[in-house]
Write a structure and sequence with these properties.
Number of strands of chain A: 0
InterPro entries (chains A, B): Homeodomain-like_sf, HTH-type_TetR-like_transc_reg, HTH_TetR, Tet_transcr_reg_TetR-rel_C_sf, TetR_C
Shape of chain A: elongated
CATH superfamily of the largest domain in chain A: Tetracycline Repressor, domain 2
Distance between the termini of chain A: 48 Å
Protein name (chains A, B): TetR family transcriptional regulator
Oligomer: homodimer
Keywords (chains A, B): DNA-binding, Transcription, Transcription regulation
Strand content of chain A: under 5%
Radius of gyration of chain A: 20 Å
Organism (chains A, B): Streptomyces typhae
GO molecular function (chains A, B): DNA-binding transcription factor activity; transcription cis-regulatory region binding
Structural class of chain A: mainly alpha
Number of domains of chain A: 2
Chain lengths: ~220, ~220
DNA sequence: CAGTTACGCTACGAGCCGTAGCGAAAGCCA
DNA sequence: TGGCTTTCGCTACGGCTCGTAGCGTAACTG
């Protein structure tokens, strides 16, 4: 959660103001809302946060790193609600993620930092650690819970299980992002329902034999 | 394909140099390779193309529009190979798209312009018209072909058919982009195969009853 | 030939970047 | 208490990019 790794050498000396940290990250999110990624400048963020511009540069290497940390905090909200079935679990996660992508801060920032990360390996790693892994945990938790319920079979082959989890994760996160940001169409309950039935049906096909229970067509239209 | 809509009022006067157009777009792609999206400047592109900087500003509103046009040309390469079955058609498209995303120009540019488009509605429309629709056509063509083969049932409900096509498109494009750019893991034949079987299995579940032929588990592991 | 539009070139104010240097503040430790 | 260390706010700076204005010239039309 801390911006830098270790405060360099030792303890001793004036400690970094944690209030400044929270003020800066909050100011960054607000600046994203008001200006968007491109027009956001570090000088403006510093003014909003009530700190000196040099303080920003002492803690973050640049705009990308700062924004990653700022939006990463929003991903703490993501949870896996125990809704009783795998289908409703997936729908819940999809709608939560969509709500996050609906906010102007994340909407304008997420794709931008990913674009940056294509030519900046450390940045990619930072995104993976503070954002992507946080989402992926939901997929793993959802599967474990479904296996406890008996909705999904246990997978003794750990390598294959990891491959499948990666696949499912890319499908869910990718589809939601694409629908929300590229197609720019609403990710509502109806879409989540149809998408979930696709994932569940696909899960049956991809994990060898079919799972314990997959509805053929839930209740989209009578 | 032309940068601007109509050359304003009338014909008459010196025509725009089409050679300059191609030189600028090619220079833009090369600059994307060498510098990446962020460090790319219009002044640099103008120098590479051998034209004046003012010429660039006369034709494009800004960096985003120019880059969209530059990478859009690359999407002309996308085709739907008639491979004989829906499964191999999908795998082919996935691998083609992945190859496109593997190129450094598109890798760094695509996410960046989409990020821009979240706060720039005309830009989003430009992207849709020159890039997204070009991809979506492949999905529609693939479905039509599969219906001709008898692999998929005809869909009398055109509204539902459109919804399903949109869903499938977001799933395919989103998953490939997420795998390639966010997870940053290879989109190879093995992944394409597993992903395709997921899509086909999901297609069976989402389009009411099952289609004519869906393999339970192709040949991923013996 | 006159009329119209695109072109290359130069120059400019404006804005942001990222850093250096300073004195003061805020903690630790003897 | 005094010394040591680190962070802080502030100011100032060179360097770069932006986007535009103005000019004379080139190319094509009627």
């Amino acid at each position: 959660m801390q911006s830098r790794s270790t405060p360099s050498t030792r303890a001793g000396g004036r400690p970094r103001s944690t209030e400044a940290d929270t003020a800066i990250l909050e100011a960054t999110r607000q600046a994203l809302v008001d200006l968007g990624w491109t027009k956001l400048t570090l000088g403006d963020v510093a003014t909003r946060a009530g700190v000196a511009k040099t303080t920003l540069y002492r803690r973050w290497a640049g705009k990308s790193e700062l924004v990653v940390d700022a939006v990463a905090e929003l991903f703490d909200e993501l949870e896996l609600p125990d809704s009783g079935s795998l289908a409703t679990d997936i729908e819940g996660v999809v709608l939560q993620f969509a709500a996050l992508l609906g906010r102007p801060e994340t909407k304008t920032a997420l794709m931008a930092v990913v674009a940056e990360s294509t030519t900046d390996e450390p940045l990619r790693e930072r995104i993976r650690a503070s954002i992507v892994d946080r989402q992926k945990r939901l997929v793993l938790a959802g599967r474990a819970r479904a296996q406890d319920r008996g909705e999904l079979p246990a997978e003794p082959d750990t390598a294959a299980a990891a491959r499948t989890a990666d696949l499912i994760f890319d499908v869910i996160a990718g589809a939601v992002v694409h629908r929300a940001l590229v197609s720019a169409e609403p990710v509502d309950a109806e879409w989540a329902e149809q998408f979930t039935s696709l994932v569940l049906g696909g899960l049956a096909a991809v994990s060898g034999r079919g799972p314990a229970a997959v509805p053929s067509a839930p209740d989209t239209a009578p």
